[in-house]
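ugh ok fine here u go
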Amino acid sequence: MPGQLNFWPGEAGPAIRWSVTRGKRFRDCLRRYYYHHYASAKNKNHEAFVLKHLSNRYSWTGNAVHEALEYALKALRDGRVLGVDDVVNQATKRMRTQYLESVKKRYREKPGVAFGLFEHEFAENIAKETWAGCQIQAERCIRQAMDLPLWGLLRDLKPENWFAVETMRSFRLRAGSVIVKPDLAYRDPDGCVVLVDWKTGKPRPEDDRMQLGVYGLYAQQAGWGEPLVGVLAYLDNVLLDEQPVDVHVLETTKITIEQSMTHMRAVLRNGHAHEEDFPRTDDLRMCGMCSFKRICGRE
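structure:
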């Protein structure tokens, strides 16, 4: 079939698990990539394991929005319409709980379970107004998302037209498996498969478009149908960037992923990672918000 992708060819070598986030981490700094994906194994480097699970205030705000919208959307899918105030209140309560866990550094006792913030671990002097601003931004994004016309459309959607809400899945390419977690995927009344990616920060065009392409590859493999339409929903300024996810986008995305996987495999020796093969970045700007800067020697 023209345009059909081959998801299952075999290729010798160690299997690679790829995601948009992992691919960006590999591009930004090989040493950080090593600490995050190899040294952080529990039985290898406990400190790296602790640091791996830290969030900074920006990702914390974004995750709060994603979790809140997941909660509201799954209720909507099940026929329950939640009020925006209830959704915001739950998100705020969760953020307060996480903040207190982090202040008390419970993540040191229960890494990977208790919540920890980068800013607390590295004793950064963050004003109370800045922390309050994280909650204010999260609330604003939640309210603006639930005020979109999209929300009314979803309310009337038939159960069979819901495909995914923050659902972790994977698919195979030649060089390994690709991890994907669509924020929202559904079939609209015109028959289009709509792939939505919530954004709370500033646009990052290359990575954002790549995310839609990865969603599209999974949608094609899962047999959700066509045409595929991607929506980058920048919630803080209520900007919806709609883009077709066509055969060209899918093929370009596939090639980019496989090239990245090939490079990831090439750094390994006989399938094993060695720290000396993962040099630190020369761009010191990358180090400022890196959780591993202490063990890397760039704190």
